[in-house]
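For the sake of clarity, the format in which proteins appear in this thesis is described at this point. The fold follows as a row of integers, each naming the local backbone shape at the matching residue. One such record is shown here in full, so that the layout can be seen directly:
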Amino acid sequence: MKQIKQYENEKVLVLGLAKSGFSAAKLLNDLGALVTVNDGKPFEENPEAQGLLEQGVRVITGHHPIELLDEDFSLMVKNPGIPYDNPLVAKAEELQIPILTEVELAYQIAECPIIGITGTNGKTTTTTMIGLLLNQERSAGKALLAGNIGFPASEVAMQASAEDDIVMELSSFQLMGVEEFKPQIAVITNIYEAHLDYHKTRENYVAAKWAIQANMTAEDFLVLNWNSEELQTMSKQTKAQVVPFSTKEKLLNGAYLLDGDLYYQAENIMPAAELGVPGAHNVENALAAIVVAKLKGVSNESIRSALSNFHGVPHRTQYVDTINGRKFYNDSKATNALATEMALSGFDNENLILLAGGLDRGNDFDELIPAFEGIKAILLFGETKEKLADTAKRAGIQTIIKTANVETAVPLAYEQSEAGDSILLSPANASWDQYPSFEIRGDKFMHAVKQLEK
């Protein structure tokens, strides 16, 4: 990593721990900063705080005293999940204390190129695909995954050598806290409406995503989803070289789907049917990954081989198993209707049994009616099961079964199925009414599938 001097003897407040806050505090301490960590979790329940205290870092836990900001900090490094209307953050803004997120620190110390991926949907799958492709036929270094995908960016940057690439998934929350951050290649998978409870307006949300390219130059590459008219318009506002991808039109300056095949410029890379993950959204993800791989010099043969053998990221249209001719897929990450709609595009509804339901956020599901049409059966659970049952009825689904939860839905779905069917968990809702996270919900689904084999 680069041995930067700018934080020596500077007073820095790290607000919020978890993985990224712990890594940021450790890095800043190593760089000679006078670090204070403030985290809401009590000290006795806070192994990260305990570990930092052992390293000589000042730790304040269990509450967020506003008086902390009387101490003349020169910088705040904020956990991305903490909103800007948090009293400490709002006070720091009032005092004009710079507020960064940990990805900015990662950029400042990274010796190698960064490939940044953001967007509303598809970030994790696209990031994983890119990492896989960039590790093909590589003679030196590695492509290292980092960021919102679960590996703290600053920790990865500390370990990376000049021969590596950091492939960094970036949320809108993280991108709000960057100043100099500049990837060599940036990808925006798509932009829909999301996280308005945090960003307040769609304009703020879009601006956060667009910040990924703010410091890019004509030597850098910005990979954009050309299916989006909004991104087409925004592309006129960047200094980077724009490389588009599309499933709707032929783009000889980018990647595209044509007659069932995936192309980069005029080169036929592979049939879309050979992708190891189903769904129109995964065709878009693959096209974005192909652009990055070609910009980095990966051969068509390696791209085809890697994408054919890629069977998905856990909880994102993840193939689980085939039991007596029934294929099971885990798409627990589908926490909104749009994500479920995109997942359904990869299946034949006549041979599909869907498991859905979860936390009621007050919305209806009218937009799912066209996607539901023709589904063989639907199993519903959670707070929204009545709403989804009404949607399913209006979509003409004949077999609608309400049940307690994901675990009880799996054997009931199997009973409704026959050889050749697919059984898909794609809930269209957050998990928090019944499960602490979408990951745990997906794990429960996969465990229930395994129980069918007994």
About this structure: The first strand starts at residue 11 and ends at 15. The first helix runs from residue 18 to 30. The mean pLDDT is 95. The chain has three domains: 11-100, 103-308, 318-451.
